[in-house]
Model the fold of this input.
Amino acid sequence: MILAPESLSELSAEQMREMLGRLMGDLRHKQAIIDKLTHENAVLKRLKFAAQSERFSPEQRSLLEESLDADLQAVAEELEALAPPTPEGQAKQQPKRRPLPAHLPRREIRHDPESTTCACGCQMKRIGEDVSEKLDYVPGTFTVERHIRGKWACAQCEKIVQAPVEPHVIDKGIPTAGLVAHVMVAKYADHQPLYRLEPIFGRAGFPVPRSTLAQWVGTCGVRLQPLVDALKAVVLRHGVLHADETPVQMLKPGNGKTHRAYLWAYAAGAFEDLKAVVYDFCESRAGVHAREFLGDWQGTLVCDDYSGYKEGFKSGKIIEAGCLAHARRKFFDLHAANKSQIAGFALEQFGKIYEIERQVKGLEAEERKSIRQQQTKPVLDALHEWMLLQRQKVPGNSATAKALDYSLNRWVALTRFVDDGQLPVDNNWVENRIRPIAQGRANWLFAGSLRAGQRAAAIMSLIQSARMNGHDPYAYLKDVLTRLPTHKASQIEELLPHRWKPAGGTGA
Done:
């Protein structure tokens, strides 16, 4: 309300002070809103990236088609595993496949019995052979493996001996384990959709249809799932876990649009003796997904402040450890937006803490805890008192207040690492495992179905865990896919990335 000059002269000193107080209050409120909007605008400009259309484009259609082909093959594999065995003498119908091109280089691999001497003592004679061809691929070049199984017969016993057919991850299929591993790495590590792989293979001399590639992917997803289940079980044996999640668009085939699904990542603690990550693809960000994954697990969970984890903390079985990097990030955004002095001071204190962490990173847990108690705790105590004091001075809805509140409301969880040398200072260990998925979104845009997302999560769990242990994902998958068909289920953990040793080798 604006008063005329003559009206102002009629106001008492008390009324003038009251009116001035109201005006100053309005001014502070408006300035807080301006600061908040300015801050949000600065953050959005830095986070801005190109918008993604949800129209049903040709690229979406290609990705949907290959996801459906892979899903169908995966379902077929699972149904076949549940079906009763085929009666003896009744062969299963197999689709006829076209012969591999004659111009591709051939490499013969001969399979003969260990001994061609019959039990009666006679030397067997070779009477023929069976030949099967497998398509192999070295980037840029296709070759054909000719597996020749000689037939040997004893004239006296009328007995025929032949080396058994070696099992393959794709039974009676044309690809070698190396070719399948290349497709899996190209799709899930290099983020190349199958419709892009098809012309790449065509230039190499053999255009494998994307529907066939999708079938290989679907089969491998089913074959590799026991490894992922075993990896999850190993991760859940550890007392410190990291958790994080990132949005992934999932296609709704009925209307050609997408909705927001989530890929969750769980990794053993940064100071644990296991380098592994397990991804879990879910249709939403609901906390029930985290609770279902963790099950009866008990320990300390390092995570951000997402409410979905809170239900697990209420039971007391799971202890919350906060992420100091998230708290620091609030002040970093504030400082980047308006060069706030409060934010600048807070960043200096966080910098001191992280400098101490760099020094204790390679120490044992007890020694790390001791140094944190001596050096980090005084810095945190002083920072906490300073934050409480500053919070009393700033408007409640300002960006500065929000940055302070984030730390103050979570202080116990944020500082839990000081009293436990096995806990990391932040959640960056698992956030770095999420980054490759965020990079891949620019290529594959979305998951074609829930099953496709779950399959991607499973295979990426193995690929990223292999990388964490210093393995070449292609070499790892090729060896695992070669050995998996004959590997004992009870010894499946031997093929996990942190325990894997190449066949005949000492490690990768």
The longest strand covers residues 125-138. The beta strands are 106-111, 125-138, 141-154, 159-162, 240-252, 257-268, 277-282, 299-302, 318-321. The CA atoms of residues 251 and 258 lie 4 Å apart. The two ends are 77 Å apart (CA to CA).
